[in-house]
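Exercise 7. Given the encoded structure of a 196-residue chain, write a plausible sequence.
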């Protein structure tokens, strides 16, 4: 008979009580989802590595200091920490196009070094799209919203979603399907508002 894996809560409790292998299990359990989430946001593997490590450093510090409060699911808590780390990274590293200064030509002041990084306007537009989409996602029924976030934001498989939400894989698939249908309907209903 297959034994059930330990819950996140039990692993956290055991780690706080000194069993460091439990923390390794938590890292292994969520490494792919967390790293994927970070990488999608920053699109740079070195930066993603740093943020991933900073996130788990903050997790360890919080757990060891005894200030961790079990409110909701562990994965949601570490995703929130990662999200805040990502925001901090973008705040600290605003990159603006540089002006080339070359005294050999009269029009150098108008020559810009092209940057692959999005400019401030592009970032503002992207942030607005993400914000609007986030608001629309929040309008979905709870069960559909939960599955959509787990699939899109946390890169969870439908098998993992089914296990996490205690439903069958078919139910998880159905909720995702209805979430997308309802999201399209909400966008269509609000189309005039969104583009004005």
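Solution.
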């Amino acid at each position: 008979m297959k034994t059930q894996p330990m819950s996140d809560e039990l692993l956290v409790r055991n780690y706080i009580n000194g069993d460091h292998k439990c923390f390794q299990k938590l890292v292994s359990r969520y490494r792919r989802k967390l790293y994927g989430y970070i990488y999608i946001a920053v699109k740079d593997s070195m930066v993603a590595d740093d943020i991933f490590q900073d996130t788990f450093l903050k997790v360890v510090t919080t757990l060891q200091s005894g200030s961790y409060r079990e409110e909701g699911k562990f994965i949601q808590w570490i995703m929130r920490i990662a999200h805040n780390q990502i925001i901090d990274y973008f705040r600290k590293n605003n990159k603006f196009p540089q002006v080339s200064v070359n005294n050999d030509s009269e029009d150098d002041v108008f020559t810009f070094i092209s940057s692959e990084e999005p400019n401030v306007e592009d970032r503002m537009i992207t942030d607005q799209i993400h914000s609007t989409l986030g608001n629309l996602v929040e309008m979905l029924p709870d069960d559909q919203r939960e599955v959509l976030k787990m699939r899109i934001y946390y890169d969870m498989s439908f098998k993992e979603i089914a296990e996490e939400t205690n439903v069958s894989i078919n139910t998880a698939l159905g909720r995702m399907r209805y979430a997308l249908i309802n999201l399209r309907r909400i966008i269509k209903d609000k189309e005039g508002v969104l583009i004005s």
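Remark. The chain has two domains: 7-93, 138-189. Students should compare their own answers with the one above.
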